[in-house]
Amino acid sequence: AQTVTQSQPEMSVQEAETVTLSCTYDTSESDYYLFWYKQPPSRQMILVIRQEAYKQQNATENRFSVNFQKAAKSFSLKISDSQLGDAAMYFCAYRIGNTPLVFGKGTRLSVIA
Amino acid sequence: DVKVTQSSRYLVKRTGEKVFLECVQDMDHENMFWYRQDPGLGLRLIYFSYDVKMKEKGDIPEGYSVSREKKERFSLILESASTNQTSMYLCASSPTDEHNSPLHFGNGTRLTVT
């Protein structure tokens, strides 16, 4: 079965500091897509960043960036200059072709003022 | 912007009731999905659909069924609600021809079965 592992159920970070959330996945495919979603208390799932596996360059979106290590099947999310609004559940997910997304169990991030 | 609307934000039902969770999207997406979210378990796929009248079982379909009579609407049905179906239910949609497209989610329905 295809799986996504987020080994940190909870993390905390001081405001303005940097935090990295880890994610590993298991697939035998070579072409797939990776995503990080954020779910604040409002429950709305918000796309943070995405990465195509065939692209070697790591994706970045403002304060959010990923470290994509294809051989290691690792897709970590780095949040720089953390803000109070970054506090949320973060889910890592991947997708092969048009199949449904497979999600990890999530990491709850707290931001300390 | 894509809008995915779930008909109820909170729902309380009794054991044994038949429950309908409705989801509507306005972007003409072919794909629609129902996930269940529980603490410590992440999002688990219940059912999905690639087109009208089509449905596929996900990882945890037991106790659920779905209906997709129109492209924009995907309903999740609990034939006889049980307390272990108390959960958050998330509907999502995506286009078929953009594999790097993220899922677009509704706001979720928190269902309590008593």
Layout of helices and strands, plus pairs?
The complex is a heterodimer of chains A (113) and B (114).
Chain A: E1 3-5, E2 10-14, E3 19-21, E4 24-26, E5 33-39, E6 46-52, E7 60-61, E8 64-69, E9 74-79, E10 88-95, E11 102-103, E12 107-112
Parallel strand pairs in A: 2-12
Antiparallel strand pairs in A: 1-4, 3-9, 5-6, 5-10, 7-8, 8-9, 10-11, 10-12
Chain B: E1 4-6, E2 10-13, E3 19-21, E4 23-25, E5 31-38, E6 42-49, E7 56-57, E8 64-70, E9 73-78, E10 87-94, E11 104-105, E12 109-113
Parallel strand pairs in B: 2-12
Antiparallel strand pairs in B: 1-4, 3-9, 5-6, 5-10, 6-7, 8-9, 10-11, 10-12
Describe this structure in words.
- The complex is a heterodimer of chains A (113) and B (114).
- Chain A is mostly beta strands and 113 residues long.
- Chain A contains no helices and 12 strands.
- Chain A has one domain: Immunoglobulins (Immunoglobulin-like, Sandwich).
- Chain B has 114 residues and is an all-beta fold.
- Helix content of chain B is 0%, strand content 52%.
- Chain B has strands spanning 4-6, 10-13, 19-21, 23-25, 31-38, 42-49, 56-57, 64-70, 73-78, 87-94, 104-105, 109-113.
- In chain B, a hairpin with a 2-residue loop joins strand 8 (64-70) and strand 9.
- The radius of gyration of chain B is 13 Å and the shape is globular.
- The mean pLDDT of chain B is 94.
- Classes of the chains: A mainly beta (113), B mainly beta (114).
Number of helices of chain A: 0
Total E-strand runs of chain B:
12
Distance from N terminus to C terminus of chain B (CA atoms, Å) equals 37 Å
Let me know the number of strands of chain A.
Answer: 12
Number of H- or I-type helical stretches of chain B = 0
Strand content of chain B: over 45%
Biggest sheet character of chain B = 7 strands, mixed
- In CATH, the topology of chain A is named Immunoglobulin-like
The CATH superfamily of chain B is: Immunoglobulins
Q: For the record, what is the CATH homologous superfamily label of chain A?
A: Immunoglobulins
Low-confidence stretches of chain B: none
What's the order of the H and E elements of chain A?
EEEEEEEEEEEE
Task: Identify the CATH class of chain A.
Answer: Mainly Beta
Tell me the fraction of residues in β-strands of chain A, as a range. over 45%
What is the top-level CATH class of chain B? Mainly Beta
Question: Taking Cα atoms only, what radius of gyration of chain A do you get, to the nearest Å?
Answer: 13 Å
Structural class of chain A: mainly beta
Low-pLDDT sequence parts of chain A: none
CATH fold-level assignment of chain B: Immunoglobulin-like
